[in-house]
Amino acid sequence: MTLVPSAHPTGAVDPPGVEEWWPRAGCRGMDPNLFFADDDESITAAKAVCRTCPVSDECLEYAMRGRIDHGVWGGMTDAERRRLRRSRARASRQNG
Ligand code: SF4
What we know:
Blueprint: H1 40-51, H2 56-65, H3 78-94
Bound molecules: iron/sulfur cluster (SF4).
Residues 9, 25-27, 35, 49-50, 53, 55-56, 59, 72-75 line the site of iron/sulfur cluster.
């Protein structure tokens, strides 16, 4: 599997090594800038798209595995994914 952190499922062209869920992305064909903006209004709008996306779980795990540190993926911002990563790491340590 190839992770392509610089690409996003909004893209009309699939990057090499794309996973099978990628073409079913709810954001397919949308302006990628919406998913990489810093303002609250854009982030809220991007998350609204993600909430109805049929592949949001796959998208989030793709971004988590690839440690993608920018943009909204799977309905979470980069800061939210970092918190989730820390939370998972804590839980993993506690569970041995
Ligand atoms: S979860 Fe959001 S960013 Fe990911 S594919 Fe779906 S709409 Fe796009």
